[in-house]
Amino acid sequence: KLSMLPLTSGGGGKRKGRSKKWKEILRFPHISQCTEQGNSIERDYVSICEKQPIGRLLFRLYCDTRPELQRCIHLLDALEDYEVTPDEKRKCRGDQIIKTFLSKQVTCVVFSVVSVLCGTRTVHDYLSEGPFLDYQNSMYFDRFLQWKMLERQPITKDTFRQYRVLGKGGFGEVCACQVRATGKMYACKKLEKKRIKKRKGESMALNEKLILEKVNSRFVVSLAYAYETKDALCLVLTIMNGGDLKFHTYNMGTPGFEKDRVQFYAAQICCGLEHLHRESIVYRDLKPENILLDDNGHIRISDLGLAIKVPDGELIRGRVGTVGYMAPEVINNEKYGMSPDWWGLGCLVYEMTAGRSPFRARKERVKREEVERRVQEEEEEYSDKFTADTKAICRMLMTKDPKQRLGCLEDGAAGVKAHPFFKNINFRRLEAGIVEPPFVPDPRAVYCKDVLDIEQFSTVKGVNLDQTDNDFYSKFTIGSVSIPWQNEMIETECFRDLNVFGPQGTRPPDLDWDQPPEPPRRSLLDRIFRRHVSEGAHSSSVNSVDSMSNSAP
């Protein structure tokens, strides 16, 4: 059963969309029940204290208990702030950092001038040795193990509330959903099991899940959960309520955008591609429909169904993508690496500027073969909407020879970022998420099709599922994904509300190794059943005594 979306992403009220039983759902196991987790977890500083959001916060809480470590954390924060300081203010900020952390009056100095100038890595190297070993014997690390146990809880359809249909994917509907424990809203992409089998889409579905699981970028949709129901495999993804770039390009007045908006979206797409390429993933389906806006006007790349990991030192071949956006080397079925994505970025910059795609006019009826001929043989035309640097970056990104294309040269994504078209973009601040978008979606508007306009899937007939299918499903269903799950706990303030310790920094009962865990709480039905059994036993005992007294001589 599907409901309409809640009025706010948190659901409103004091609990902010959380279930009445949210504390019970997220109840910490006693630390004695976390031994297996403690033995199996990889004791890696970078993973635990840098990459994992809850691990990072708990390590910082531990460092706050030791003045010399607290000072290291303050230096890391200062250096992080320096990285996103506007260029014209960086020298002043740098001088402040050196003065603050290298003054002769400062005590507990554990770093040198060189370490400050070398930046964060030197400080992390220091923290990753003795301090990290000490941290692993503290109650803060024990609390981290408790959070990891909660993270590993089984995920089912009952973990979520289901809301309205948002659209269609290749194998099923996409619905809005809300985590009962936290109130966090997501989009649930359902892959119908029989439809996957009928279309032989197992490898495609698993590939998308594996890639989404691997990528952690604010410019690519995140996978938070993967689970199965009786009829479907479900990917729970970042919800993007602001519509897609195709809708905004063509349905919001005159087709196309002003230059500042084109620059902003192109810069964020460039960062998303760079993050994918760092993981050796080529996206291969860059088009306006696949670029989604969130509530605040930031964009993410979505639908990674055609993305693929390129083996180290190799090239791949595959004639996939969308007509009008496929690069010449893809159309020609030649081998390639990351080059098709930079071609796609050029197509998007062109379309956002001109209000039409580079090789086909809006609503022009033309055969696929003709569009592909234009891509291979013709030069795109530029109107007076294009400034000199916009025209230049489009031409460099849509260079037909991938060896000469911007983004495919030795400097890679850095070369794209350095182009004069992006001269007004501070990429350090953009990647930190502190650049204000030029357009913010109206929360009262709906930037998508009406739910009644979304075509329904027909029923799949003549397909039976067997044990081989179950083996595939077991590879797909992983439960929660670590970093997005931890971010959810922090963003919804569940971490703040639950991460409580004893008075004066002592261990609470659930972290006390010497105090046995509380017995599990029984459900209402269990309590009623036990009371019924107890009363029945008491009644039998009374009847037995009466019977014995009646039969006595």
From TrEMBL:
Q: Where is the active site?
A: D285 (proton acceptor)
Q: Which domain of life is it from?
A: Eukaryota
Q: Coiled-coil annotation: which residues? A: 361-388
- AGC-kinase C-terminal domain spans which residues? 423-488
Alphabetized PANTHER family for the sequence: G PROTEIN-COUPLED RECEPTOR KINASE, G PROTEIN-COUPLED RECEPTOR KINASE/RIBOSOMAL PROTEIN S6 KINASE
Q: Where is this region: Disordered?
A: 1-20
Give me the reactions it catalyses: [G-protein-coupled receptor] + ATP = [G-protein-coupled receptor]-phosphate + ADP + H(+)
User: What is the name of this protein?
Assistant: G protein-coupled receptor kinase
The UniProt record lists the Protein kinase domain at 160-422
Query: Which residues are in the RGS domain?
Result: 51-105
